Amino acid sequence: MAEILRAPKGLDGVAVADTTIAKSDADGTLTYRGYAIKDLFESSTFEESTYLILYGRLPTKGELEEFEAKLKRYSMVPHNVYELVKAIPNEAHQMDVLRTAVSGLGATEGGISSEEQELSIIAQMPTLVANCYRLNRGMEPAEPDPSLSLSANYLHMLTGKKPSDFEAWSFERMLILYLEHDLNASAFTVRVVASTLADIYSACTAGLAALKGPLHGGANEAAMQMLLKIGTAANARPYVQEALAKREKIMGFGHRVYKTVDPRSQLAKKLLRELLEKQGKGLETYKLCEAVESAVWESKRLPSNVDFYAAPIFMTLGIPIETFTPIFASSRIVGWVAHYNEQLMDNRIYRPDATYIGNKGLNYVPLDAR
Ligand code: ACO
């Protein structure tokens, strides 16, 4: 029998697959298909970066126009999925609602090719995220407006207000930052499900379940709650010191790969400042975030991650906190689809081992003799 290798806890430092989709590095760099995140953040659109991640290269002008038109065409959600959403109690977490809705989509979207399924699930996510929230709050579902770009339309559906060009652009920057991040917990989950040859809806439903946790995508919502609790820059240091003394996690800090800087966090930090300046509302939120960042770095040498600055950006854009993690999911689903397909290109079912440390050789005792 072949020797069983023991992997470290959390599979830290273990490569379990080859990928060409994205690469994050301890030196604080991130690339999608070989392109630096900074360049995509500054110059690309959500649709163009999505094309890049799905197909491995930047589109031509014609290809991009065709792709954008397809995403618009697929963005409507079947109404029976909304019926499913309406049956969920109002107090449910929005990630639970979204996970149920995506699972419902899988039971509905029969008769289309797998490529159409993949594009439609990506295109439907913004509509679903906005409308799961709206329905849950007793509002009518919003219909996507085909005259707007995907990000402007998405922000409009989330807030009920037509965004300025800069607000829509800022929101789109965050969607680009969230698109993909190599083999994180949710992408790995998606690949495990893909390896069983289950469909894309099953894989994405599982991805959503993994993303919900506060150690992963749930951190943006938790970071916002924490920032609201801290309140002012002056409270940052005592809050951080007390939390660390109690061995509590500071949400939006730390990362398995990035030990000194998360490049996405630095881009988002600059964006938060620009957004606040444009809105003329003062820099209190920025100063609060910076004070928390300095306090965590001084006490524990942990850098902020993307979720820490995503939270106040979404808040500044007027987006409801409950939808922060669903928004992350609606972008990251692009990476999941790419991982799903990459897994299938060179598939073998994931079936690791576990070291058995339980009882052995016990004698069964009948119920009435116990
Ligand atoms: N607050 C307090 N302590 C922390 C934090 C934190 N945010 N992050 C790590 N630590 C501590 C760990 O407990 C550990 O302490 P110890 O050595 O005393 O036991 C030490 O720092 C080193 O931890 P790592 O090995 O670097 O962390 P790991 O790779 O296991 O976990 C994780 C990474 C889950 C992101 C962790 O940093 C964390 O829980 N952060 C808070 C949640 C969060 O922001 N998640 C979002 C991640 S990014 C994303 O998913 C998009």
Descriptive account of the structure:
By secondary structure, the chain is mainly alpha-helical. The protein folds into two domains: 34-214 and 322-345, Orthogonal Bundle (Citrate Synthase, domain 1); 219-316, Orthogonal Bundle (Cytochrome p450-Terp, domain 2). The protein is 58% helix and 3% strand. It is built from 16 helices and three strands. It has helices at 37-43, 46-55, 61-73, 79-86, 94-108, 114-136, 150-159, 165-178, 185-195, 200-212, 219-230, 236-245, 263-279, 284-300, 306-316, 324-345, and strands spanning 22-25, 29-32, 35-36. A three-stranded antiparallel β-sheet has the order 1-2-3. A hairpin with a 2-residue loop joins strand 2 and strand 3. Helix 2 packs parallel to helix 16 (324-345), helix 3 crosses helix 6 and helix 7 crosses helix 8 (165-178). The protein is globular. The protein starts with 21 loop residues before the first strand and ends in a 25-residue tail after the last helix. The model has no long low-confidence stretch (mean pLDDT 96). The structure holds acetyl coenzyme *A.
Summarize the structure in short.
The protein has 370 residues and is mainly α. 58% of the residues lie in helices and 3% in strands.
Helix segment count?
Answer: 16
Order of helices and strands: EEEHHHHHHHHHHHHHHHH
The molecules bound to the chains, other than polymers, are: acetyl coenzyme *A
- CATH class membership of the largest domain: Mainly Alpha
Helix content: 55-70%
Order of adjacent strands in the largest pleated sheet: 1-2-3
What is the CATH architecture assignment of the largest domain? Orthogonal Bundle
Number of domains: 2
Low-pLDDT runs of 5+ residues are none
What would you report as the Rg, rounded to the nearest angstrom? 22 Å
Oligomer: single chain
* Number of strand elements: 3
Morphology: globular
Strand residue percentage: under 5%
The averaged pLDDT comes out at 96
What CATH calls the topology of the largest domain is Citrate Synthase, domain 1
| Main sheet: strands, sense, barrel | 3 strands, antiparallel
